[in-house]
Automatic annotation (TrEMBL):
Residues 196-265 form the Alcohol dehydrogenase-like C-terminal domain. GO terms for molecular function: metal ion binding. Keywords: Metal-binding, Zinc. It holds the Pfam family ADH_zinc_N. InterPro entries: ADH-like_C, ADH-like_N, GroES-like_sf, NAD(P)-bd_dom_sf. The keyword Metal-binding applies. This is Threonine dehydrogenase. The keyword Zinc applies. Gene3D superfamilies: Medium-chain alcohol dehydrogenases, catalytic domain (3.90.180.10), NAD(P)-binding Rossmann-like Domain (3.40.50.720). Residues 27-153 form the Alcohol dehydrogenase-like N-terminal domain. Its cofactor is Zn(2+).
């Protein structure tokens, strides 16, 4: 089959690889009908996520039609149309039982490596390095789904691939980011990053009752899309974000701040982001957490900082003095996707949101390598790429 494979920094290829096979009784195999490129894939593309191997199949936002089912899988049948969460979860362990699916303690077969780095292992992920299971991803014609009687959700009649594909990751992620903010009537929510995840967070914040959403980015079409949802766009290259947010909130700060940027933050001339770049370039640091620092400073006393942008290692110069003395709450996670699926499928079915609003580019797998670059460089108005193998 054809698949997009990783061969090093900025080297994604579309090539022929062996078809996946059933390995365990609960597995299923799907023929992929749609898959997408995520901002998290850019961390692999940019070479900031360790333990990728040459030839690894990329992709963790995938859906398709079931073509084969393992003998112990009572949930799926050949022909079912399913969306596949990016987190792989057994459904039975301590964490899965409590709904913390992205903390599954069984789905990462080689937990020791990541435990050295993070103290323990989260769930295995599709297409996301050998630290997290080394599972083949879904930017391919076929995908093997482990524990396929837990993760995949069947798609009701009448919904298109584009309407439901983002249930695999960015819609639950943006929704979780807003959910973490415990939004109350009258609240102002500030969102850093108007990429696909930020866009979902902005719309979810309104769905959950936010009075006002402030959307921070610098890419014009991304700010415009945020504005079309009713958010107030703030350009971090044009204005001082801290000053603006204070001015807009009577000097208090936003009720909650969402970091939907993560480790590869850009910044206008600021001392801390220059420092981050030097440290990362010289292997003295692991991340560029400029946005997280700013989100903490811009959050009101006893407000919430909700982090869904991904970080990898040991973050430098985080203003914990500000956070402890002003009573901030931190919430963060790789999304326990399965936990949110029933509610969000319902919202799509009732027409409360159509997540396909974010798609700008539709392509084949062959065009994938070029589109990684287009998406990373935010060229050609690119906000979200969907590929139909
Ligand atoms: N927690 C999860 O489960 C989960 C799931 C999916 C994605 N993510 C993470 O969410 C993040 C965003 O993903 P995406 O697909 O939207 O990616 P993206 O790269 O398209 O979007 C990031 C956006 O942040 C903007 N940005 C950069 N510096 C900024 C700054 N200083 N202030 C404000 N905005 C800034 C960029 O211009 C860009 O529009 C990534 O880190 C990704 O890994 C997390
Ligand atoms: Zn993702
Ligand atoms: Zn589990």
């Amino acid at each position: 089959m054809k698949a997009l494979t990783w061969h090093g920094k900025h080297d994604i290829r579309c090539e022929s690889v062996p078809d996946p096979e059933i390995q365990e009784g609960r597995d299923a195999i799907i023929r992929v009908t749609a898959c997408a490129i995520c901002g998290s894939d850019l961390h692999l593309y940019d070479g900031v996520m360790p333990d990728m191997h040459s030839g690894d199949i990329m992709g963790h936002e995938t859906m398709g039609e079931v073509v084969e089912v393992g003998k112990d899988n009572a949930k799926l049948k050949v022909g079912d149309r399913v969306v596949v969460p990016f987190t792989i979860s057994c459904g039975e362990c301590f964490f899965c039982q409590r709904g913390f699916y992205s903390g599954c303690e069984r789905s990462n077969p080689d937990r020791s490596k990541v435990t050295k780095l993070w103290g323990n292992s989260p769930a295995g992920l599709f297409g996301y390095s050998h630290l997290l299971g080394g599972y083949s991803g879904g930017q391919a014609e076929y995908l093997r789904i482990p524990y396929a009687d837990v993760g995949p959700i069947k798609v009701p009649e009448g919904l298109s691939d584009e309407q439901v594909l983002f249930l695999s990751d960015i819609f639950p992620t943006g929704y979780m980011a807003a959910d973490f903010c415990n939004i109350q009537p009258g609240d102002t929510i500030a969102v850093w990053g108007c990429g696909p995840v930020g866009q979902m967070a902005i719309r979810s914040a309104f769905l959950l009752g936010a009075e006002r959403v402030l959307a921070v980015d610098t890419v014009p079409e991304r700010l415009a899309l945020a504005a079309s949802a009713g958010a107030l766009p703030l350009d971090f290259m044009e204005e001082d974000i801290y000053d603006r947010i204070m001015e807009l909130t009577d000097g208090r700060g936003a009720d909650a701040c969402i970091d939907a940027v993560g480790t590869e933050a850009e910044a206008s001339a600021s001392w801390d982001s220059r420092w981050d770049r030097i440290k990362v370039a010289t292997f003295m640091g692991t991340d560029r957490p400029h946005v997280l620092r700013q989100a903490i400073h811009c959050c009101r006393n006893f407000g919430t900082v909700s982090i869904v942008g991904v970080y990898g290692g040991f973050l430098d110069k985080i203003p914990m003095g500000s956070a402890i003395n002003r009573g901030l709450t931190f919430r963060m996670a790789q999304t326990p996707v399965q936990h949110y699926l029933p509610v969000l499928m319902g919202r799509i079915e009732r027409g409360e949101i159509d997540p396909s609003f974010v798609i700008t580019h539709r392509a084949t797998l062959d065009e994938g390598p070029e589109l990684y670059k287009t998406f990373r460089d935010k060229q050609d108005g690119c906000i979200k790429v969907v590929m139909k193998p």
